[in-house]
């Protein structure tokens, strides 16, 4: 993609990520060193909502996304729950 378009798309991506973070959809993001890749913790009420959030990213069409569902662990603060 042309440099001007790339700069614009990255700025739009950053703005959307900031919005999703403020909404609580993105909890945490980490960059994988040496790669153009990230790992994140996202929260959404449903898989459909998560899908819509991911599709709202300006660079969606250029991304490869793998989703792993997480479940609550049976311990809280190191204590077993009843």
CATH superfamily: Dimeric alpha+beta barrel
Shape: elongated
Total DSSP helices:
2
| Rg over CA atoms | 16 Å
Number of domains: 1
Main β-sheet description: 2 strands, antiparallel
In helices, the fraction of residues equals: 25-40%
Span between N and C termini? 55 Å
What is the CATH class designation?
Alpha Beta
CATH architecture type: 2-Layer Sandwich
Instruction: Please provide the count of β strands.
Output: 4
Can you give the mean pLDDT? 91
Strand order of the largest sheet: 1-2
Which H/E pattern describes the elements? Answer: HEEHEE
The fraction of residues assigned to DSSP E strands is 15-25%
Secondary structure class reads alpha+beta
CATH topology, by name, is: Alpha-Beta Plaits
InterPro entries: Dimeric_a/b-barrel, MLI_dom
Keywords: Isomerase
Protein name: Muconolactone D-isomerase
Domain Muconolactone isomerase: 1-74
Please write out the topology.
Layout: H1 3-22, E1 26-31, E2 38-42, H2 47-55, E3 75-76, E4 79-80
Antiparallel strand pairs: 1-2, 3-4
Describe the overall structure.
- With 82 residues, this protein is α+β, with helices and mostly antiparallel strands.
- It has helices at residues 3-22, 47-55; strands spanning 26-31, 38-42, 75-76, 79-80.
- It has one domain (3-64): 2-Layer Sandwich (Alpha-Beta Plaits).
- Helices cover 35% and strands 18% of the residues.
- The strands form 2 sheets. It has a two-stranded antiparallel sheet with strand order 1-2. Strands 3-4 form a two-stranded antiparallel ribbon.
- Keywords: Isomerase.
- This is Muconolactone D-isomerase.
- Residues 1-74 form the Muconolactone isomerase domain.
